[in-house]
Amino acid sequence: MNAMNATELPSAPDAASSTPIFHLANVRKSYRTPEGSELVILDGVDLDLRDGEILVLLGRSGSGKSTLLRTLAGLVSATSGTTLHRGKPIDGPVPGLAMVFQSFALFPWLTVLQNVELGLEALKVPPAERRARALAAIDLIGLDGFESAYPRELSGGMRQRVGFARALVINPDVLLMDEPFSALDVLTAETLRTDLLDLWAERKIPTRGILLVSHNIEEAVLMADRIVILGSNPGRVISEMHIDLPHPRERESQQFRDLVEGIYGAMTARPTGRDAVRKQAPGIGLRLPSLSVNALAGLLEELDALEKSNANTRISLPELAEDMHFSVDDLFPLIEGVELLGFAQVEDGDIMLLPAGRTFVDGSLQERKQVFARHLIERVPLVARIRTVLDERFNHRAPDSRFLTELEDHLSEDEARRVLDTAIDWGRYAEIYAYDDNAEVFSLDNPEADLE
Amino acid sequence: MAFNFRPLALPLPNRRDLIALPLVIGMLLIIGHASRQMAVPFHLGETVALSLKPADLPEYALYTVLRMLAALAASTVFTLIYAWIAANNRYAEKIMVPLLDVLQSVPILGYLSITVTGFIALFPGSMLGLQFAVIFAVFTSQAWNMTFSLYQSLKTVPRDLTEAATLYRLGAWQRFWKLELPYAAPGLLWNAMMSMSGGWFFVVAAEALTVAGQQVSVPGIGSYIAAAIAAKNLGAIGWAILAMALVILSYDFLLFRPIVAWADKFRLDNTVSVDAPRSVVLDFLRRTRLTQRLARLPAVLWEMSVRLLPAVPLHKSPQRAPSVWGDRVFVVSMVLFTLGLIVALFLVLPRDFGWLQVGHVMLLGAFTALKVFVLVAISALIWVPVGIWVGLRPRWAAVAQPVAQFLAAFPANLLFPLVVVAIVHWHLNVNVFTAPLMILGSQWYVLFSVIGAASALPSDLREAGRNLGLRGWLLWRKLYLPAVFPGFVTGALTASGGAWNASIVAEVVSWGSHTLVATGLGAYITEATQQGQTLKVGLGVGVMALYVIAINRLVWHRLYKIAATRVRLD
C-alpha cells in the first residue's frame, strides 16, 4: 500500500513547547430566538487538541458536541471566547482540516472516484495528479475496484470508507469525525475502527491530530488518548481523563471495564458546586425526556429482574447498558426519566429501584396508573399546572397553545413542543387529562384517576 | 511476419452509432432549415399563407415543436438564474417568491395580445417577433413552475452535504453545479417535462390570434386548425388531431421518458429502486460511442471554468447578523410601495373604466369562477371513483396512467371545433355546452393524480380493511377517499388552473362564420383582444388574476393543510 505524499513522519509530540492544534478558551455559543430569549448551546468550554493525540468528545444529545465540532471546523462561529487553530484565530473553514460525517455525506450522483476527488478539485489540483492521489487513497482505505461505483451500490461500511478516503486524500493536518461509526452495524464499525487505528499507528497518514465525537462510551475508551466528557443543556466540559492503555485495547480487561464504569459515574453524577448553581430551579420548563411510558416501565421491569438475578439492589450502569444493548443516547434519557419520576436513583455509576418503583413493577395496570399519576403530579410541574388550569376553568378545556406560550419563555419553540408532547403522553396514560389532537385542546373528559 | 497495428485515431463507430449518427445529423439539418424559415420577413397586416393540405402538416408540426423546445431552453436559463438569486439573497427572496406566486395566477393567454405587439415592435419586418411572442407565451406556462421547484430544492439541500461542500472548500460555482443543481435535478426535470406537457395547449392557442381585428398567425398546427375552422374543413381538423397525437407520443418517447430516466441518477435516496423509470432511447444512447465522446465535452468545459475561477478565500467574511436596520428599511419601503400601488389603482380604475364597468367585470369573473367550481366538482365526481377503481388494480393502472398523461398533454383546443359543430347543428345552449370545453383538457389531471394516489395506497391498510369486513360505501368513506385526498387536491388544483386558462379560449368559439360567445370573464378578455382594446384586456386579466389568487389562498391552501395534517398516510 502506498503512503500518500508523506514528507516526513511526524516526530514525537513535545507537549510543553508545541502549540496545540486547537485551543478553545471559554467558548460560548448561543442563539437568539425570534421572541428575544437567548438559548445557550455551549457555555464556557475549554478544550485543547494536541499534536499526536486522538481526542474523543463524549456526550449525550443536547451536549452541543456537534456544534463544538463545527466551531472547530470553522463552519460556525462562536458567540464569545477564544478559538485558535495553531495559534491563529478561526474565522472561516480551517485549512488542512477534513471531516467525516455520521451520515457519510457522499454526493449520490458522483462515483466513488469523483467523490474522493472532490476536495482536490476544490483545491485546484491538476486532473492527472488528482486522479493518482484519489486512486491511492481509495487503495489505502481498501476500496480498490469500486472506483466507478455509485454510493447507492455500496453498503454503509463501504460508504463510510469513501468518506474516509475523501478526508484523507487532501492530506489533512487534523481529522474531525462526527459520530462516524454510529450509523454502521456493530461488526462493520469495529472493522473500521481498527483499520483507522492501524493507519494512525503505522503513520500511513500525515494527520497530526484526530478529534472524534461520540456517544458510545466503549468506543471512546477503545480509541482515545484523552477523553473529554461534555454535559448537556447547556454543553460544557464536565471532566477529562487520560487513557494510557496500550493498543490494541481489550474490551474485557479489568482496566477497560474500570474506565468505562468511571465514565458512567462521571456522566450521571449530580452537578455539584458551581454547576449546581448554574442549573436553574426546574419549574414548568423542566425538560422531560421524550419517552413513552412503555419504555419507562420496561426499564423498571429490567431493573427488577436484574435485582433478583444478581441478588443485589445496586446495578452497575455499564451492565445495564450491555444487557439492554443500549448506547448512552438510549440509556441516559431513560435513567433521567425514572429518576425524575422518583422510581429509581442513581449513585456513583449504579442504579437502584426505589420503593415507589417496586410498587409500580409489582402492581396491576390500574395500580400502575395510580402510582404514576401521583408521582406525575408531585414531580412534574407542567402536568400539575395543566391539571390545575383545567380544574379552574368552567368548561374544563384549554388549548395547548396556552401552555406552549408559557413554555416558550423557558425553552426554544421546538423544545417546548417536544416537552408538551411528552407531558400529553404521560398525562393521558395516567388519565389525568384528555387531549384532542385535531382541535389541539386539553380537556377533562373521562378522567378516572382519583386524585387527592 | 509481425504487424504492428496502431490504433486508429478516429473512434470506431459501433452498430448503434450507425443508427444514431445519421439521425442526429439529420435532426440538426432539419432544425437549421426550419429555424431559417421561422425568420422570414413579415409585416403586420400581411396574411401568412397557410395551406390546408395534410402533406404540409409535418412541416407545421415541426415549427410547433421547435417553438416548444425554444421555450423550454429559455425557461431553463431563466430558472437557473432567478431561483439562484432568490435562494441566496434575503431581500430578493422576499420580493421574487411572492412575485412568482402572482405570476403563476395570471392567465397566460390573456396578456398575449399585449406581448404580441411588444415583440413585433422589437423585431420589425421579420416574423421573429411573432415567433417570440408565441414562445414567450409557452415560456410563461413553464418558467414559474420550474423556478418554484428549483427554488424549493435549493432551500432544502441536506445539511450534511452543504457542510461537506463548505468544509472541502467548494466555491459557489462548484457548489451550484456539483451539489445544488444535481440535488434539484429530479424535481426540476420532472417539473420541466410536466410543464412541457401542459405547454402544447398554449402553443396551439397562441399560434393564431386575432389582435385588433387582424389575424396574426405563425405557421404551425395551431394556425392550421384556425385556418381549418375558418374554412369549415372537418377533414383537415381530423388530420391535425392525428398529427398532434403523433407529435405528443414521439415527444413522450424521445424526450420525456429518457430525461426522467436519466434524472433517476440524481435521486437522493440511497437504494436502487426496483421500478426505476426506464427508457429505451436512453439505454440506446448510452451505448453509442458517439455519446460517450460527446460526454467528454462538458467535462472539458468544466475543468476550464474551474481553473478560471479565483480560489476560495481562506477566511470567509465574518457572518454578519442580519442587519436590523436594513430589514426595517426594506419592510417600510415595501409597505409604502404596496400602498402606492393600491392608491394608484383606485385612481386609475374610475378614470379609465368607471366603477360600473369594474363591477360588471367582477361579476363576470364570479360567473366564470362558478363555472370552474362546478366543472371541477363534476369531474371529481366522475373521475375520483374511476381513478380509485383503476388505481387499485395494478395492471389497469399501468395502462391507464400513461393514457391519462397523454390525454392531459393533448391540447384540448384541437377538439373544440367538433363540439362547436355539434352546438351549432343542434342549436344547443351556448353557456351550458361551452362550459365543458374548459375542463376538457384539464380533467385528466384529476384522473391521473387519483390513479397515482390509489396505487400508492399501502397494501396493509387494504388488508386490514378487508379483515375487518369493511365493504361498500363504508370502505370508500373510511379508507379510499381519505387516502387519495392529498393526490386529489393536487390534481384538482392543476385542473382548476387549467380551466381558468382555458376559459379565455373556450368562452368564444367559432366555426366558419358562426361565433359563439358565452357569458364570462374569458369571453370579455377575448372580445377585448379582438377589438384591440388594451385597457379592457388589462382590466380583465387583472380581475382574473385576483380571483385565482383569492381562490388559491382561501380554498386550496386550506385543503392542502388538511391533506398534510389530518390525512397523512405516515
TrEMBL record, chain A:
GO molecular function, one term: ATP binding
UniProt xrefs under InterPro entries: AAA+_ATPase, AAA-associated_dom_C, ABC_transporter-like_ATP-bd, ABC_transporter-like_CS, ABC_transporter_ATP-bind, P-loop_NTPase
Keywords: ATP-binding, Cell membrane, Membrane, Nucleotide-binding, Transport
CDD domains: ABC_NrtD_SsuB_transporters
Residue ranges of domain ABC transporter in the record: 22-257
PROSITE patterns: ABC_TRANSPORTER_1, ABC_TRANSPORTER_2
Segment forming the signal sequence: none
Family to which this protein belongs: Belongs to the ABC transporter superfamily.
Name of the featured protein: Nitrate/sulfonate/bicarbonate ABC transporter ATP-binding protein
Protein's organism: Thiomonas arsenitoxydans (strain DSM 22701 / CIP 110005 / 3As)
